[in-house]
Amino acid sequence: xxxxxxxxxxxxxxxxxxFLGVSVLSGAVLAGIALPAVGALGLATKGTVQEFDxxxxxxxxxxxxxxxxxxxxxxxxxxxxxxxxxxxxxxxDMSPYVQKALVAIEDARFYEHGAVDLKxxxxxxxxxxxxxxxxxxxxxxxxxxxxNVFIEEAGDDPDKVAQAxxxxxxxxxxxxxxxxxxxxxxxxxxILENYLNITFFGQSAYGVExxxxxxxxxxxxxLKLEQAAMLAGIVQSPTRYDPVNAPDEAKKRRDTVLRRMxxxxxxxxxxxxxxxxxxxxxxxxxxxxxxxxxxxxxxxxCQYVENVFMTDPAFGKTKADRAKLWNRGGLTIRTTLDPQAxxxxxxxxxxxxxxxxxxxxxSTLVQPGTGKxxxxxxxxxxxxxxxxxxxxxxxxxxxxxxNFGFPTGSTFKPFVAAAAIEKGMPATKEYPSPYxxxxxxxxxxxxxxxxxxxxxxxxxxxxxxKGPYRMKEAMAKSINTYFIxxxxxxxxxxxxQLTDKLGIVQGSGExxxxxxxxxxxxxxxxPLTMASAYAAFATRGTYCTPVxxxxxxxxxxxxxxxxxxxxxxxxxxKTADTIxxxxxxxxxxxxxxxxxxxxxxxxxxxxxxxxxxxxxxxxYTPNMSGAVWVGSATQQVKMRDxxxxxxxxxxxxxxxxxxxxWRDAVNxxxxxxxxxxxxxxxxxxxxxxxxxxxxxDAKPDQPDQxxxxxxxHPDGGLGDLFPGNNGGDGNGNGNGNGGGGGRGNDGxxxxx
Length: 752
Fold this sequence. Notes:
about 750 residues; alpha+beta; five-stranded mixed beta sheet
C-alpha cells in the first residue's frame, strides 16, 4: 500500500492517482513510483485533494488568432496582416493523410485511450521522479492541445509564454485536468481538428492550412501522403525539422512518420516505400504579412489604417484592448481607398518624381462632404530598403508621419482670406502691398497682442511686385505683403479660430501659434491636413474629419463599430463661395495655371518656402480635394538647379512640380465621373476692361512667391524645424518672407 503521511491523509502519489482517476491501481504499483515532494508539484503546500479540485474546472479557449484582410472600397484586397499566420479550416477541409500522419507519430493510441494515456503517464512519472525533473513526457494529443491553448493565450508576451511552457509537474497536473474536460467537451474529432488548427508548423505558419500554403502552395485538403507526413513530422521540433533550412533532417523525419504510419496499418508497405522515395517537393511561399505587401502602392495608407485601429477608442477602451483585437485578427477591414484614385496618384507620382530622386513627393486625395480618404501615396515606395521609406509623409507624427509636418508656404493664405471674409472684410479689400515692409505691430491675438520687437520684414518674390493690390489679384499672384497686412488688420485670433474648425494642427499635433507669420505658411502641416481643410471650401463651408475605415467584421462575422467622420460647419456658404472664386482664379490665370484640369471646374493654391525646401499644390473640385508636397523629408535639399523626374528645374515652385502631379492625379481619379460646378460669386475688379479677361494675368511660367522661411534670421524661419543653435524665439519673427518659432537643440525631423 502507498504510505500515508504522519499527519494522515493521502500521500502525493495517492493524490495524483486520485486526481487522475486511477483508483484501480494497486498499492504495490504505486509504491514502486517515487514522486517528488508536494511542493515540487507547483501546487499548494497542503497537497490535499481539495487543492487539486481548486484548479478551475473550465479551460477558457480564446479564439485562435488569424490573419486579417484589408480591402479597398470596392472589395479588392489591399493587404493581409497578422500576428500569427493562420487560417482556421474544418476537419473536412484537411487531407485524411495529414490526420492519420499526425496521430501516428504523436499519439498512436489516440482513439483508444481517454484524455490521459495512463500507461504512458506512469512510465514518464516514474522516470521523471528518478531524474528529479521532467525528463520525459507522456502527453496525448489532447494534452498537447491544452498546452497550445496556454501558449495561444499568452500571445507575444514572453513571460506568459514561459509560464505556459514551463517544465513543472504543477503545470502538467493542470494540463491533465483540463485534458479530461476537453475530451468530454470536444470528442476525438473535435480535438484533432482544433489541434491541427492551433499548432505551430514553423516558418511563421500556424495551423495546417497556413503550413500547406507556406511549404507547398496548396490547401490542406489537397495534401498528398508524403506532404502530409512531412508536416506531421515538423510539429515535434519546428526548428530542427524545418524543411527550408534543414531539408535533410526534414526528410529523415518525414520518412520516420511514413514508417510509423505503416506500423500502425494506416498505409501499406508499398505506399510507404513509394512516398519515402520522393523528394520533399517544396514550393515555398514566403510569409506575406503587413503593409509591406500592400497592392497599388497603398502601403502608407495600410499603415495609416493600422494606426487608426491602434489609437481610436472605437476599437477598444485601452491600447491593450485594441492591440488584443488587432493581434487576434480574423478581421475583414473595408476601407475608403478608391482603387481608381489610388492608381492615378501612384501613376502621377511615378511619372513626375522618381524614387531615386534627391527629393520626395507625397499626395493625398479626400472626398469633400464625407472625409473619406480616397488615395494616399509617395514617390518612394513603402519599405526599409534603398530608395524606400517607412515614414508616411502625408500624415502627422502620431500616425507615423513627420515630427513637424512641412511648411506650407502660400497654400495657407486662403485660410487668412476666409477668416477675414467671415469677419465681414470685403473680397475687394485693397492694401498698398509694397515690395518690402516691416511686419505691422501690434497685431491682436486671442489673449495678447503680438509685437514686432525685432523689426522683422516681409518681402514679395520680385521687386516689380508692388501694390496696391486687391484680394483677388493678390491671391493669384501670391503677394506676401498683402496677406501680412490682411492678418495684421483682422488679427491672428480669427484665423486660428477658423483653422481649429478646419482640423488644422501642426505635424507635431500642436495648435498654430498666435503670430502673423502663419499667414505665409511658416509652420509645418501634413498633406492630409491640407487636403481635408481645403475640402471644406469644396463643400461650401462644411469640414469633415478624415476617415479611412468603412466597416470592420470580426472573426465571428459580426460587425464592429468603426469611427465616423464628424462634419461641422466651419464657415458660411458665402465665405466658401468667395474663396472658391478667388482660388479658381489662381488656376485660371495665376501661379497654379499648370495645375488646371481637363473639362471640369477646379480651384487651388500653390506654395513654396524659403530656399525652395518645400513646394506645394493644394487644390479641389466640388467632389475631390487633394494636396501634393514635394521636398526633402529631412529638409536638407534646396530645390534649385535640380533634376526631378528626369526634368531639369532651375527653380522649383508650387506650380511647376506639385501642380502637374495634382493635375494628372485628379484627372485620372475623376475620369468618367460627374463634373459639378462651383457656386462662384462676383468680385468686382475696377482694373478689368473686359469682365471675361483679367488685365493683369500672371505669366504661365511665373513662380509663386516663397513663403514661411526667413531661416537666415536667428529669430525665425525654419529654425523651428531643425536641431541647432539658431532656433527662433517663438514669436514668429524673421526676415525675408516670414518666420517661425524656434525649436532649439532637441529633437529631429522624424520620431522613431
